Amino acid sequence: MATGSLEATIQTMMQELKGEIKGLKEDLIKQIGSLRTDVESFATEIKQVQKDVKEVRAEMGNAVDKIAGAEERINQLEEGEVTINNALKHLLREHKKINQSLEYQEQKSRQFNARIFQVIEGIEQQDMVGFVKSILVEQLKIPADTFHICAAHRSLAKKPTGEDAAPRSIVVRFLSWNTREKVVKTAWAKKDITAGGKRIYFDRDLPEKVQKERRRYAPLRLQLKEKKIKSFIIHPAKLKVFEEEGSFIIYNTPEDAETQLRAKGLISTEPCVGAHRGKHGTLRKEGAQSAPFQRSGGDEETLETLLEDAMRGL
């Protein structure tokens, strides 16, 4: 009985064990299946990552090629910039040489010339040389046999129209520098010289660059004149201002004059020198004219300014 009962117990335990093993096996199979699915999914993800990495590598390769190309172009641009800078320096040096040569030639061509300002248009009646000669002889009291006028004509500026328009200046060429100086200085000493009942003025025929600098004083002189303050332009382009008790101050540049006169309250606070850039400007009313062979000053100044600015940046 005992043996039979034991065998029955063992048999029951074996059945239970087989059931548990079977359950474990089924669970294990399920887990293995799930793991396989996860592994396959992971493998798929790895393949996608590998694909993405491959694409990234390709893009990086393209980027590296582009960077290399950009570096090459930058190097070429830098080399080109050096070449351009060297050429610009050379151009500026040559420009200054040519400009100095032109200024010298212009000065030489004008050294025998004088200018007469504020002479009424048409008063010369087709005989400019005879008209000028009569002024020198009759008003300046210079003997006719002591000077020779080679040529005389109105400046080549456009003929003015309108009653208030300033007349063109008269350019007079003498045979020598000494004669020119004698005529101009005699006229300055006499002061009251007239033609057609209107006061006229003599001066040297100055280079265009000096004329431009002188014209920049015009707004200042007009304001000083309104306050009954005397001022004169002295050679080559300085401003002489008479103050109280006969004293005077000489300003070397328009900017210096504007700054100091404004500080003294003699002119308005509005900028005037820098804004006065007209070809003839307000000073034309006082007789200033453009030169007979005036160059295109605006273009020339622009080129020179651009070159100098570029040189400062090198």
From TrEMBL:
The keyword Coiled coil applies. It comes from Xyrichtys novacula (Pearly razorfish). This is LINE-1 type transposase domain-containing protein 1. InterPro entries: Transposase_22. It comes from the Eukaryota. Residues 39-108 form a coiled coil. Residues 276-300 are annotated as: Disordered. The lineage of its organism: Eukaryota, Metazoa, Chordata, Craniata, Vertebrata. Keywords: Coiled coil.
